[in-house]
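User: Could you write out the 3D structure of this protein bound to adenosine monophosphate? I've included everything you need below.
Assistant: Certainly. Input first, then the structure.
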Amino acid sequence: MFNQILADIKKYERILIHGHIRPDGDCYGSQFGMYHIIKENFPEKDVHVVGDKAGYVSFLGTPEKESITDEMYNGALAIVVDTGSAERVSEARYTMAEKVIKIDHHIAQTHYGDLVYVEEEAPSCCQIVTKFAVEMGLRLNYEAAFALYTGIVTDTGRFRFRGVDSQTMNLAATLLSYGVDVEKLDNLLSVETMNIVKLKGYVLQNAEFTDKGVVYIRMTRDVINTHNVTDEEAASLVSLIGAIQGYPVYCLFMDYPTEIRIRIRSRGPRVDKLANLYGGGGHEKAAGAHLDSWDELDEFIEKLGNLNKYYQETGKDDLF
Ligand code: AMP
């Protein structure tokens, strides 16, 4: 499969690299990592990173959108990274490309792409892109290594999540050999504004707990505005309530104009199947979904609690 991907990269003169909506470190890392790998090895190619912007990892580069014309997709190759389902691809025009390659690590729900490479067990998409470069004997450079290492670090929660294995470490070591400054990266990722620190205080004070082991926080528009943070910053705080003893399932409800987005996480049962019932998906222990209104919150929390209770009592997580 990697050979086919490389053959297509060699074949097409213009390559547009897409990611998912509300991009994160792994998405940006995969997009810009792939961009720099292609430019390093095939400098004559016309390569573009296309899609939404992410403040958190903006130091990796700025994707294009308005400057990309429809004509640019004529006879072009689109590579979509880190995106499980078609609806989540940032910038739907990727379908106008002559060929679409999907490279991903999510549990696939809807099929898209002419050539599909998915490793569900990989803890980051950047790991797959790095492996692709290494196995195909492609040259890496500092920019590629820095972007890919950023994605590996962020999507593994700093090498803490299951899925991290010797392959992850070996590939990360290869990236480090290009001079990635781990302290510089950690500063870029970890230093936060006073507004976020204050919002963290709010989250810890106002998290809600159920008797079935679920903890959650309602990130209402009012709270986001009062603390003067971006949506991305507010949504990132789901991890803050992730290590409370007795509450292995946790989530953050994010108030958007047309929907309530849920970021669901678990140290217990798999939660992606429940996410599927609420228009979402993702990974077994980290998934996204949405509600149409706050009125649906209680029912969702009840189901999540039942799932956890069932898992604690039976060791099984096939309730949904
Ligand atoms: P998030 O809470 O947005 O970080 O999402 C957790 C994981 O689930 C990420 O890997 C997302 O790419 C994925 N995900 C989030 N929302 C959805 C969705 N609506 N459908 C499918 N996958 C999703």
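The pocket of adenosine monophosphate is lined by residues 20, 84-85, 88, 106, 263, 280-283, 286-289 (CB under 6 Å).
User: Perfect, thank you.
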